[in-house]
Amino acid sequence: MMLSMAPYLFAFLLLVVGLYAIVAKRNLIKVIVGLMILDYAANLLLVLIGYRSAGAGAAPVAPILVGGPENVRALAASSVDPLPQALVLTSIVIGLSVTALVVALAIRLYEKYGTFDTERMRNLKG
Amino acid sequence: MEHLVPLLVALPLAGGFLMPIVGRLTKSHRAAAALPIAIACAGLAIAISLLGRPDETIVYWLGGWSFPIGISMVVDGLSRLILIIIAAISLLALVFSMDYMKHYTSPGLYYGLFLLMLTGMNGVVVSGDLFNMFVFLEIAGIASYALVAFGTEADELEASLKYLVLGVIASTFILVGIALTYNVTGHLNWAKVAEVLGTAGGAGLSLPMYVVAALFFMGFGLKAAMVPFHAWLPDAHPSAPAPISAMLSGVLIKACGVYVLARLVFSVFGGDQTMGVILAGLGATSMVVGVLMAVGQWDFKRLLAYHSISQMGYVVLALGAAAVMRANGVSDAVVGLAIFGGLFHLANHAIFKSLLFLCSGSIEYATGTRQLKMLGGVGKRMPVTGACLRVAALSISGVPPFNGFWSKLIIILALVLAGYYTLAAITVVVSFLTLLSFAKVQRYVLGGDPSEAARGAREAPVGMCLATVVLAVLCLATALVIFPTVRARLVDPAVRVLSVRVSEDRPAAAGPAVAREGMGR
Amino acid sequence: MQGMSLIVKNMTRLVAGFIALFGIYDIIYGHVEPGGGFSGGVILAASMVLVVLAFGEEFSRRVLSVDVARVTTSLAALVFLAVGLGGYMVGKFFTNFLGRGEVGELASAGTLGISSLAVGIEVGAGLFGVFVALAMFRRTGTGTRREMEIPHG
Fold it and tell me: By the CB < 8 Å criterion, does A92 face chain C?
């Protein structure tokens, strides 16, 4: 049972790695990389949740329909869940826009302070 | 009439995409504001027309698909209340922006981002399934990160960065929570998830769902600025332009934070006692920490931001206490009173907090500063803004006959009637401290001799004055909600939606059950 | 940002068209094979970014200008919304109002095809605009709110 839980544990490990990078790193670019790792770890978890075994020990297939509508039932019985994959597509795009925004902020911050060191950027207090 | 519901999302979205094109054609903020104000008026008209039949739950299935696999938009009593609040405050903030944003460039981008934020908030409130709500939450969030950084000074960029990093962490927790919910229940539709959880064991929720609840509390607690997830708010709200501060503090933390928390605890998890206790604990902590940090502030907008945390604590405390009361068997009347107090305070806070931020914006526009020690005697030079500021300060401090007094009174009354004397005492003390800090604000900003900064001040332009005066009138007008006829239309349906009792032989809430019957359309 | 060496420029001339073509293929066949609007749009944007990187920003200002990218983004998004509103004619918001052909054929997606196309163009133009905004950001010292200069209107 532990072996089949391994992918989920790795996804959580990635989440923790991302959080560590955001919290513990001083360089702003490393914080941004940590944000991306966090996002992709959540996406990975979402895709892993869609895994369904096909019964009789056979490996499940990707949910792509080939050869006309009469194959739908066979596909539905043997493929992985396609819904989380659709959700992950949207989530990847959301992660992309957040990354673009934070990189733009980082460029402007470098413009103001001349450095990517977050310790120098702590102006707002209290 | 139900076909108008997607327009709540589609119209601001279309406006948001049109604005960069409009922004190339004109450089003036007044001209560029015409389209967003038209869209905001249309949104307000739709929200008001939805009040037509207050107890009816409108379920709109997109694309003709049906329960439980289709995407739905659900409007029930609670959604109607929040939609009206969003529409009204955003219209007034847009009217204010017409003149205030003269200090900033790129009107097209500003109004485009504003309309995207409006789309996101409307979408979170009407969406009927979990992932759709997450997408709209992100739309509103990304637009607000960009708007906080709009002035591109060093302080604003730092505040936006802090807000962005914390907001993305919260959104990731929410996404993981949604993934686990899908794993446990197999569905994403709010109503279907509530149904599956309600009939699952009858003995309460299983361990995975407690993990999901913890993730959701962390994620949405951050969006609602609950302590200990509040660290982004005191930097982000002061740094944003004043109308955006009004929108963030007045609407965003409610629509994206408190509304979803209320739905989760009451409709999906069925008002579980543990969750009620956690919610009440978060609320009480936020109340106390917020006001204690606010009393010592000398920056006007930062003080207002800390008060936002505190007042949101009131609302969350009332809702959490209601859940605990119901699980402990306190009478339905008292539970209903607590929920009514919470929701009434939510609406009131939207009005007086946005009024406070808009007044601070007017004062900053006229004097160029927002440090309390450098302002003084502004009341003599700017009579209209000064009067509105006094009204707002009296409202938030809970002075009769303004609306703040009534909602705080109802919350304290409900806590006393249910026997939670400590919580009621804490609420009274926090109220007193709020009064203290706003007495300080009034003395430093409005009273005394005109300071150097205030010497050159003139009254704010017409658009800004109009917005602040309308909000001040609303502060008085919403006090009338305590009278039965107005209350029955506006707030009671929302209270009814949240206070439906969970029982073993029925799905988790009447709202989703009606939603399930609506699948025949 | 200057262009790159002659070797890179010549290879880009040969290859960029194929990359763009692959992106368009991905968008159009999105409902039959893995792909669709998002990924096809990203590949399209990648081909345009490659051209700008290889030929320098003067070329980008003349041929692949960022103004066109911004307007295209907005218009494509509006087309997507129009498809949704067109669903009102047949029933509810976002209902499919075109025919559904055979599964596996090109013309078998109804309104999904138009939506996919609009999303692909929007993502392509949008990502290209993001790249240009980030890479060709003009700096004017510390800059206050009014003095920041950005290469668009």
Answer: yes
Total structural domains in chain B?
1
Cβ distance B145 to A101 less than 8 Å, yes or no, reads yes
Cβ atoms < 10 Å from Cβ of B45: 12
Answer yes or no: is B431 within a domain: yes
Terminal-residue alpha carbon distance, chain A: 50
Domain membership of residue A65 (yes or no) is: yes
Identify which of A28, A42, A112 has the shortest CB distance to residue B175: A42
Q: Mutation test of the interface with chain B: which of A28, A52, A91, choosing the one with the most B Cβ atoms within 10 A?
A: A91
Residues from chain C that touch B61, judged by Cβ atoms under 8 A, are 92
CA distance B226 to B230: 5
pLDDT tens digits for range B118-147: 999 999 999 888 899 999 999 999 999 999
Domains: count for chain A:
1
CATH number for the domain harbouring residue A44:
1.10.287.3510
The residues pairing with B75 across neighbouring beta strands, listed in sequence order, are: B58
Please give the single-letter amino acid code of residue A113.
Y
Task: Please check whether residue B123 lies inside any domain of the structure.
Answer: no
- Residue B6 with chain C: CB contacts under 8 Å: 84, 92-94
Structural contact between residues B20 and B32, judged by C-beta atoms closer than 8 angstroms: no
| CA–CA distance, B395 with B388 (Å, rounded to integer) | 11
Q: What is the pLDDT of residues B267-319, one digit of tens each?
A: 777 777 888 888 889 899 999 999 998 888 888 889 999 999 999 999 999 98
Mark out chain C residues that contact chain B at CB-CB < 8 A: 67, 70-71, 73-75, 77-78, 81, 84-85, 87-88, 91-96, 143-146, 148, 153
Residue A125 — pLDDT band, cuts 50, 70, 90?
low
Neighbours of C90 (CB within 10 A): 13
Query: Which of B115-124, B332-341, B438-447 is most confident?
Result: B115-124
Residue C56 has φ and ψ, to the nearest 5°, of 90, 170
Q: Which helix (H) or strand (E) holds C134?
A: helix C111-135
Is A68 in Cβ contact with C130 (below 8 Å)? no
Kindly identify which residue of chain B lies nearest to residue C92, measuring between CA atoms. Answer: B63
Q: Please report residues of A whose CB lies closer than 8 A to that of C143.
A: 111
Query: d(Cα C139, Cα B319) in Å, to the nearest integer?
Result: 50
Tokens representing residue B5 in the block: 């519901």
Question: Range of A94's domain?
Answer: 2-121
Give the neighbours of chain B: at least 3 Cβ pairs within 8 Å: A, C
Structure tokens at B109: 């981008």
Residue spans per domain, chain C:
6-135
**Nearest residue, CB atoms, C77 vs list B6, B17, B24:** B17
Cα–Cα nearest to B418, from B327, B518, B309: B327
- pLDDT tier for residue B187 given thresholds of 50, 70 and 90: confident
The answer as to whether B125 is a domain residue is no
Q: Which distant-in-sequence residues (6+ apart) come within 8 Å of C141 by Cβ?
A: none
Q: Write out pLDDT tens, residues B9-58.
A: 888 999 999 888 888 887 777 777 878 888 888 888 878 777 777 667 78
Contacts of A113 (CB under 8 A, 6+ apart): A120, A121, B154
SS3 label, residue B326: helix
Point out the residue among C81, C144, C148 whose CB comes nearest to the CB of B10: C81
Give the single-character DSSP code of A117.
B
Q: Contact A67/C104, CB-based, under 8 Å?
A: yes
ipTM (interface predicted TM): 0.93
Look-up of token digits 């409902």: C31
Say if A126 falls within a structural domain: no
Burial of C58 (0-12, 13-18, 19+ CB in 10 A): exposed
Omega within 30 of 0 (cis) for the link into B450:
no
Q: How far apart are CA B461 and CA B459, in angstroms?
A: 7
Residue B175 forms part of a structural domain: no
Tokens linked to C99: 């025919």
